[in-house]
Amino acid sequence: xxxxxxxxxxxxxxxxxxxxxxxxxxxxxxxxxxxxxxxxxxxxxxxxxxxxxxxxxxxxxxxxxxxxxxxxxxxxxxxxxxxxxxxxxxxxxxxxxxxxxxxxxxxxxxxxxxxxxxxxxxxxxxxxxxxxxxxxxxxxxxxxxxxxxxxxxxxxxxxxxxxxxxxxxxxxxxxxxxxxxxxxxxxxxxxxxxxxxxxxxxxxxxxxxxxxxxxxxxxxxxxxxxxxxxxxxxxxxxxxxxxxxxxxxxxxxxxxxxxxxxxxxxxxxxxxxxxxxxxxxxxxxxxxxxxxxxxxxxxxxxxxxxxxxxxxxxxxxx
Length: 318
Hints:
Layout lengths: L3 E2 L4 E2 H13 L13 H18 L14 H4 L40 H13 L3 H10 L5 H4 L7 E2 L5 E5 L4 H6 L6 H12 L7 E5 L13 H18 L3 E5 L1 H8 L5 H4 L4 E5 L2 E8 L2 H6 L4 H22 L1
Parallel strand pairs: 4-5, 4-6, 6-8
Antiparallel strand pairs: 1-2, 3-5, 7-8
């Protein structure tokens, strides 16, 4: 196994950490071998255009703006006569135009901070059932994502299931439907579950952040921190036997582990759910597998490990 790269002086672990960072930053492909400075390129083009104008004797010509003589652009047609515009009466008072009404949310935006996190903890702790928790989230105004999202994407599947899967945040399809993992990544997740004999009636699915961030961007650390008490309480109330983190974001948010998904996946760990230990495992997010299909073989190993753990637990009970 290659453990170092002498040409660059970086170890394999450094390379792996860099790849994890780029993946987390949203980089999903290599475009050029060298970085292109677009600002310098634009400045060079502007300088060349200025030199070209000076070579014509200075100043600007209509051709600089694609506005040559009308006769040269439309053969046989003369330029239209100038318009006779009325003179401006300086004594006329111009009335301001009425602005279009702005649709305002009934809940004002808030500045995320420790008070918002404290309010989230108190609201989550007050929920005695999953239905109570959903109502608390619907009434919670401490996260600004609720202002731009169409739906509160709470959960899907069987709340009494032995397996609970947790992703990062809903996307566009999930926001429109109010159901987690319903788009392309959700369809892949359904096929992965079916391959080990599970479906949505035998699992419970949720996200760390229940509102879609604008443009499907990554939730900010503040947004994740505000929403974390709710998903932690959701896990406690669902009380599954096994927990599956779909992607590094949900695993890091709920366990505090700072490793990348390549180092974290496939290893069983204990998750503390209000004093009860739940066996947990991290694997690749289905959306990542759609972009990197070669990693599906590793995700398959993780799901086989889940299947084996379910079988072993059933044998122990039997």
